[in-house]
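re: that complex we talked abt at group meeting.

here r the seqs, copy pasted straight from the sheet so there may be weird spacing, ignore it
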Amino acid sequence: MIREFEEKFGPTLEKKVIAKNKVLYTLMVRREDFINMTKYILNRPNTRLFTMVGMDERNTEESFSVTYWFLDWKAQEVIGIRLYVPEEEPSFPSVGAIHKGAIWFEREVQDLLGLEAEGLPDPRRLILPDDWPEGVYPLREDFQYYHSPMGTRNYPYREPKNNSTVHPMGPYHVALDEPAHFRLFVKGEEIVDVDYRGFYSHRGIEKLARGRLNYNQVIFIAERVCGICGFAHSIAYAQAVEEAAKIEIPDRARYIRTILLEIERLHSHLLWIGVAAHLTGFDTGFMRSWLIREKVMELAERLTGNRKTYGLALVGGVRRDLLDYRKSLILETINKLRGEVNELVDMLLATKSFIKRCEGIGVLSKEKAREWDTAGPLARASGIDYDTRRDLPYAAYDELSFNVPVYKEGDVLARALVRIDEVKESISLLEQAVDAIPGGPVMAEFNEIPSWREGISAVEAPRGENTHYVMTGEINRIYRWRVKAPTYNNLQAVSDMLRGYTIGDAPLIVASIDPCYSCTERVQVVDIESGKAKVISFGGMGTCP
Amino acid sequence: MELLGAIVAPFLPPLLDGVARKVKALIQNRMGPSIFQTWYDIITLLSMEPTLPTGSLAFRLAPYIALASALCMAFMLPYGSNSIINFGGDLIAFIYVFTLFSAALVFGALSVENSYSHAGANRELTLSLVFKPLFTITIGIFALKTGSLSITQIAHSISPSLSIVGAYLLLLYVAYVEAGFIPYDIAEAETEILEGPLSEYSGRLLGLLKWALQIKRFAMIWLFASFVTLPIAEGVFAFVLQMMVFLLAYLLMVTYESLNARYRLDQAMNQGMKGIVIGAVLTIIAWLGW
Amino acid sequence: MLFALLFIIASIIGLIKREQVKIVGLLSALASLALVVEALSGIDATYSILGLEFAFMTDTISRYFCILVGISGLAVSLYTAEYMEPRHLNLAAYSVFILSMALIVLSRDFLEFIIFWELMTIASYVLIVTYYDNTETKKASIIYLVAMHAFNTAPLLLAIGAIYSQFGTLDYSTLQGVYVPTWVIWAFLLGFISKAGIFPVHFWLPEAHPVAPSNVSALLSGTMLKMAIYGMIRVVELFPGSEAIARTMVVLAILTIAIGAIMALVQKDIKRLMAYSSVDNMGYLFLALGAYIMLDRVLKKIAFLALLLHAFNHLVFKNLLFMLSGNVLHATGRKDLELRGLGKKMPFTAVMSVVGILSVSAVPPLNGFISKWLIYQATFLSKDPLLVGGGVISLFASALTLAAYIKIYRIFTGEPNVEAHEAAPLMLAGEAILAFLCVVAGIFPGIIARIINVDVGNPWLISIGGATFNALLFAGTLCSFIIAAAIALPTKKNLDAPWTTGEPVDEFEQKPEHMFTPIAKFGKKLSFIGERIEERFSSFERWYSSKDLGYLDEIMFMPVIKLIEGTSYVIKELSKNLNALLAVTFLVLFTIVLTMAVLAGVI
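got the structure back, here u go
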């Protein structure tokens, strides 16, 4: 893809190579070309919008910048296109008008940096709370992280049309682990439209990381972006920095990272199976699957000292080694798990009432899935064959063999089957990794991390691809860190998935994308209490169970 | 003997629900709460003042009417050989008191502006539109065969035949559905519509409603147990046998409940329609004399 | 016959002074009261007018129906005194309407019967076209007039004519127990079911009842339909050989029950919903009548009691419900189901609506339950699969009725979206009488049974055929439970707002047309089918008239068809001018009466 792109558009671009297959192009002249380039890339098969980063580069480049990163997963190449946006004229052509998956990225940049996307279909606020005043942009360099400006509360929800009424699945609902507001427009029991309002747990992590924490402190914040998939975030961040600084991590560290990533995937998928069963009223399935998950949590505790937030990643390797006698512990647990998981799956698939609740519900077609750039089991259940472990290999995955389950139906049952198959694959991956783990050091030797380097890296978290982008800065600090969680894309697809189904199915459909709101909503908000009676602290920790 | 029923009917059902929770917990490999837990919950709820979302009188009155009708239903059933409120044709009155119960719940739910309550009321009424006829067909078969519409009289004069066996099975099915066990607890679904009609109730009113629901469940299954036991026993022995059959049926239902997920409204209605077709066939069989 | 005098005075006042609604209403109320009192003590009078002998006498059944007409007339007249808007002749027609119904019931031979029957139809027609400038009303009134005469008066005339030609007399006492040809009974059946609104001739009912003013709808739905039942009972009592029609009657009744209930569920207009519900209830009455004919001994008595009791109950609660809808229409100007929050400003109407809704859904301990209970006894114990099927369908329809009326309850809940005010005291008084009767008849049904001389043992209970329903004990038990619970566990008023899960929501309710979607879909299919049938008929008619048919056909049928076409054209032209139409109608009536008089050999 890179070669063809260069042939077509080369002359107007300045090129910068980040890594072996990753290239960054900066657009110097002719912004009109930008949309053509985007269209060209997105029209090719197997491409997706990887992430989009808005940066305040007024200190170094005298303007803001907006970078769109695209991935071709069959060619395993990443292209970034950077557009400079001057302060006097803060607007740029919107990709969201031609590709729906870019809409939230552009709304975010509008909220946090004040850069307007021309032609954006839905220009409402995304991230900032209702009473944040206009014209104050948190992610700009001149905004101090401890400010808390006041405003008046007002959010422009859409109105119900065609004689439908509003049925809120509101911040407080039994089916939602974390606060989110799905405004369902219903006619009786049938849903005709959906409006989403999220970002209740927005915490300001990217601003915190800017200029206040050093590289290893950021990694611990990264782990706390999410409650379930925290380790994946920390690894993605570490990989991005390692790419920027050109650090090669030792083999043993790569294998340890792989083992822990797979353990995380196991416990996350087992949790999801339990929650799906609970939402359809099948409590026995819920209890059984969490009983199995308990074994995985205990294993994690024996290996790392923590059940959930392992705290083991560092830039350049891992913090602690896995002792040899623990290997047998892992193998023992996996064997027990294999039998129990098979039993659980048999019981679930034999419960006709559960299957009937899941079959044919919440169907997302392949075209829509591509439009919204969905990732993870959601995309794989709709027929998109993309798995970051295989297509952009990292850690030890290029030396292990595994299958990627893909189903075409796109309903809740397909997503459940994808996750169940991935559990089985994880078990087999763990066996291979434990077998093949080499000896050696667990931490690479390196000196300073140079400044003004960029790195972009993705990790397959249980929910999909986690993409982290890093620009290193001076005095051993980060200049810009951009986190994109898979639920960011998946949540946008929920409105298409909910239309036409009943309100009884809505909790199940929302849960089937395995939403992790904490991951999604990580960026900026005020997190210090003001002197007034209003407390706007949403807790700094991820609130996933 | 009947007065024993006056004690059993109001006070036994929450205890039974506690037993059911314990059984479910054992199936799921965990300890579960104590068998008195449902009683503790109800007593705690009854001691709290409710917060009312609307000043409507119907909202405040509905739980009392629901409790009263559930108790009436229970009192119309035989404990031993006779029932407390006893009169010919009381099977029809039983169905209609049940309707009063549903109506009270629905009136209460519709008097508050909350789309969760409305969704619950809607589901409750739609379900009763399908399952009441099924109940009626079952009663029709019994009436056709025994020539009476009184619960005690039918129970005493049932004689086995093909259609009666089919009617028993249908009655078991109807008792299961109307008792609100898991495949069919659609109207009070917790995870989907925040407990439907109950969602705006709190404190004392919620406690009364939960108690009324337990008593209704008890009444339906006790009806089935009476029909099974009374043809073959009398007096105190009949009461003991009723209790045993009731407990057996209850435990079987709870076990079946833990192995199932909840139905959607249209799926439950399809099942109900199939039941009605089977019932019609059984009625024809009964008329032909078998 | 004091009541007749009072009615005639009221009618004359209505004719001369067309604005005196209050006087006419109160006089009619007084007259109805007089009717009840006189009927209880028995009426036996004979008058000679224009050389014709008119005899009026009460026997068990006619005394009962007199009392029904009287109660209904009393309540509705009180209501009318405040409600009705006087227009053209409707004030005069009002008293004539009630008077004619009373006289139908009291008449002693078929001649009087048919004369007052036609008078009743004409009077009701005049009342229906009160708002004649409304397009809906025009269409409905034409359907009503044509349907009534084609399917109702015509078969009745044929049947009566046949009886006369065969036996030479039309007197009831002479005709008792005489054998008539079966087709005569069929003709009577056709005539009466079309008046009662049984499938397939029910189509005029949902058109005519909603367009009339509410007090008239109350009388139409509550009382006029009972005249058909009375007529049918009379025919069945007089002539043996009614077993032939019993099965058909039951089948049609079952279909009516089902169709009426399902169609009621999908309506968006309060009065149309209630009109379909009347169709449904008439189905119950005919089911009970069919059961009465088909069964014997104890079950026959039960069916008879059920029939008469349900006639009373339906009269009471349907009148009540229509008058309440009139309250709503009067206060807000709307009668659709989108209204909300009327309970705040109209508390009495709300409470009485709950009583009415619970009665129509046959929830104990109100009156609807007793009659339904008796119907179930009669049908389920009959060992006849058709009747048992009827019983099952009745229960289904009962549940559907509750669901349909719950939609009406919703107009009283929530936040108001229109301006409203409570109805005038006279209107409320009329309704209160009926609501009171609903409750009393539910708890002491034995009183009604006494009036028709059915032996129910102790009048405080209903004990018939081994089945005893102690309504008093039942109601007492229920109330004592409620009071005990309320005293032991009272609730303080602790107000807050409904919970919208954390974000503000405006339209947080379920619209009534989205309730019960699976069943409603079926109902919509039914009405779709009805429209398709209508389309087929009209397309058939178009095809027929476009064909050039054979010679024989031309001679035999074309003249008749041309005549009907011509008449309908004339009527259409006339309907543009109401007075001319009324004049023509009276002319027609006069011609009929003249013809009959000629037939009777008087002139």
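couple things i noticed - The beta strands of chain B are 78-79, 82-83. Chain B touches chain C through 73 residues (CB under 8 Å).
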